[in-house]
Automatic annotation (TrEMBL):
Organism field: Amaricoccus solimangrovi
UniProt keyword annotations, A-Z: Glycosyltransferase, Transferase
Family statement: Belongs to the glycosyltransferase 2 family.
Domain spans labelled Glycosyltransferase 2-like: 11-134
Record-given protein name: Glycosyltransferase family 2 protein
């Protein structure tokens, strides 16, 4: 442990039917270079409650660790994150809560780096890199896709963060925004984090990148398949259009998203005409254009159970 004062950050792990991943995430927290920080597990499967069972077992093996858990009956990504944040801030006198997804694990200095940034700055939201690992046979063109990259090389203020995985939320920001920080309309589609970041930018709220706060996410084999990647890109684009409609109004959203769709089609055609590799990027462009138009017309993608 390198910090002389109590850690100002609690950790929230939202979980849904991934007991093995949750166990690995908890093990990574046991190896952190800071100590005496509370952990909350929010289980979104109220019937089976496998996540709560993992948390109980972990607690029994480490009676000195502070871990609590809640069952969240309302199904959805947004609902689970919101309930976990509300519980963490109500139960623990911390300055911020950092989220770690149940398919990721934290590097040993993850929480120390976030805690330093919370203490040393005023950002409302703080995020760090997610480093992806792949099955051995994954082609280089898949490993090199932008969606698996790190958006910023160094720490500091940024206009937008990448994901709710590896995201710290400051208490005053959460209390000012209210208990539905993550918009419930994105419960099944994902995009709840994108909505948060775009709305924060529009409101002048501060976001910060913490380059040393790193988590690792193993990519399962099915997510390396082209069909999954294109579906994910189409869904993300549809969510972007939905968010534009919600934040900017219909006319501005149509202008923005149709313009972006045309650029994606143009980029895809250029890659096709020049035979530029990898070809999957061309297909991503077309999938993104289709997704934006679908989002403008009210299509509601559903990716999560």
């Amino acid at each position: 442990m390198r910090m002389d004062t109590p850690c100002p950050v609690a950790v929230l792990i939202p979980t849904f039917r991934r007991p093995e991943g949750l166990a690995l995430a908890l093990e990574s927290l046991a190896a952190q270079t800071v100590a005496d920080f509370p952990i909350v597990v929010a289980d979104n499967d109220a019937e089976a409650a496998a996540g709560i069972a993992v948390a109980r077992a972990w607690k029994s093996e480490r009676p000195g660790c502070e871990i609590s858990w809640i069952s969240v009956p309302a199904r959805g990504l947004s609902q689970n994150r919101n309930a976990g944040l509300s519980h963490a801030f109500a139960r623990y006198p911390v300055e911020a809560v950092a989220m770690l997804d149940d398919d990721s694990h934290a590097e040993p200095e993850w929480l120390e780096r976030l805690a330093e940034a919370v203490r040393g700055g005023e950002a409302d939201l703080l995020g760090g890199p997610t480093l992806y690992t792949f099955p051995p046979a994954t082609p280089g063109e898949i490993r090199g896709l932008e969606m698996f990259g790190v958006p910023y090389a160094s720490s500091g203020p940024v206009p937008r963060l990448r994901s709710a995985n590896n995201l710290a939320v400051r208490r005053r920001f959460f209390e000012a925004r209210g208990p539905e920080l993550f918009h419930p309309d994105f419960a099944r589609s994902g995009g709840e984090d994108t909505y948060l970041f775009r709305s924060a930018l529009a409101r002048g709220e501060r976001m910060e990148w913490v380059a040393g706060a790193r988590v690792v996410e193993p990519v399962p084999e099915h997510r390396c398949a082209e069909a999954w990647i294109l579906s994910r890109h189409r869904t993300s684009a549809a969510n972007s259009a939905r968010i534009s409609r919600m934040l900017d109004g219909e006319l501005a959203a149509w202008r923005r998203e149709v313009g972006s769709a045309l650029k994606e089609v143009g980029g895809g055609l250029l890659r096709f005409a020049t035979n530029r590799r990898p070809r999957i990027v061309m297909r991503q462009r077309f999938a993104g254009a289709a997704g934006r138009i679908a989002g403008l017309t009210g299509a509601l993608p559903s990716c999560y159970g």
